[in-house]
């Protein structure tokens, strides 16, 4: 047996590191990948999160081919719209207006590339019921700044937890890294801590 292969988390998200730590997985390092997250014309949310998760894993592997590389991507799908991270407070407000009083789906794609080049990926999702926001709640949430860096302009693990009436599916998919699927992928490709 050769030396143990390192694990690289191809992400800038501290939440993803925390989630991995929760199941005892500690990447040797993180390598954020700055890839274009714009959906292709007609692309479904599922295809988008898979493409981006695989793209992040592949880009990370280009820099470190001897490592296991983990990439993931989260979007919110409401009706036929796909919501990524808002660029500013104005866009965040528009996203909150779309979510207010409706159900939506959060999807996270996760991909692992092994040192031998095999890649495996999965999608996890959650259905989220969001309360109708009053003008005061909307303004207060925008002022909190917690919308920054979150798909759909909210973080269920913060103040917005108080807006969520119910969740069906994977909670960790909403926070950015579905732990069940991630564990299956790492184990399936032979990664060992
Ligand atoms: C809906 C929701 C999203 N999010 C976060 C998870 C993801 O980090 C983020 C979606 O953005 P992503 O583009 O998936 O990830 P990122 O930009 O944070 O990190 P990287 O691309 O480098 O891996 O939204 C929450 O933390 N809580 C929530 O309730």
Automatic annotation (TrEMBL):
<dbReference type="InterPro" id="IPR029001">
    <property type="entry name" value="ITPase-like_fam"/>
</dbReference>
<dbReference type="InterPro" id="IPR003697">
    <property type="entry name" value="Maf-like"/>
</dbReference>
<keyword id="KW-0546">Nucleotide metabolism</keyword>
<protein>
    <recommendedName>
        <fullName>dTTP/UTP pyrophosphatase</fullName>
        <ecNumber>3.6.1.9</ecNumber>
    </recommendedName>
</protein>
<feature type="site" description="Important for substrate specificity">
    <location>
        <position position="74"/>
    </location>
</feature>
<dbReference type="GO" id="GO:0016787">
    <property type="term" value="F:hydrolase activity"/>
</dbReference>
<feature type="site" description="Important for substrate specificity">
    <location>
        <position position="15"/>
    </location>
</feature>
<dbReference type="Pfam" id="PF02545">
    <property type="entry name" value="Maf"/>
</dbReference>
<comment type="similarity">
    <text>Belongs to the Maf family. YhdE subfamily.</text>
</comment>
<keyword id="KW-0378">Hydrolase</keyword>
<keyword id="KW-0808">Transferase</keyword>
<comment type="function">
    <text>Nucleoside triphosphate pyrophosphatase that hydrolyzes dTTP and UTP. May have a dual role in cell division arrest and in preventing the incorporation of modified nucleotides into cellular nucleic acids.</text>
</comment>
<keyword id="KW-0963">Cytoplasm</keyword>
<dbReference type="GO" id="GO:0008483">
    <property type="term" value="F:transaminase activity"/>
</dbReference>
<feature type="site" description="Important for substrate specificity">
    <location>
        <position position="157"/>
    </location>
</feature>
<keyword id="KW-0032">Aminotransferase</keyword>
<feature type="active site" description="Proton acceptor">
    <location>
        <position position="73"/>
    </location>
</feature>
């Amino acid at each position: 047996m050769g030396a143990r292969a390192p694990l690289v988390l191809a992400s800038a998200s501290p939440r993803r590191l925390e989630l991995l730590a929760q199941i005892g997985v500690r990447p040797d390092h993180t390598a954020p990948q700055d890839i274009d997250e714009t959906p292709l014309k007609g692309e479904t949310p599922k295809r988008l999160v898979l493409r981006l998760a695989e793209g992040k894993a592949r880009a990370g592997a280009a820099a470190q081919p001897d490592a296991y590389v983990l990439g993931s991507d989260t979007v919110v799908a409401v009706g036929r719209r796909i919501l990524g991270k808002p660029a500013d407070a104005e866009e965040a407000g528009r996203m909150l207006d779309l979510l207010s009083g409706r159900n939506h789906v959060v999807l996270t794609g996760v991909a692992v590339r092994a040192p031998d080049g095999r890649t495996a990926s999965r999608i996890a999702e959650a259905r989220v019921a969001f309360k109708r926001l009053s003008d005061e709640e909307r303004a207060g949430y925008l002022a909190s700044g917690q919308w920054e860096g979150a798909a759909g302009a909210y973080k269920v693990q913060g103040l917005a937890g108080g807006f969520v009436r119910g969740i069906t599916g994977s909670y960790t998919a909403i926070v950015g890294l579905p732990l069940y699927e991630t564990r299956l992928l790492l184990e399936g490709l032979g990664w060992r801590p």
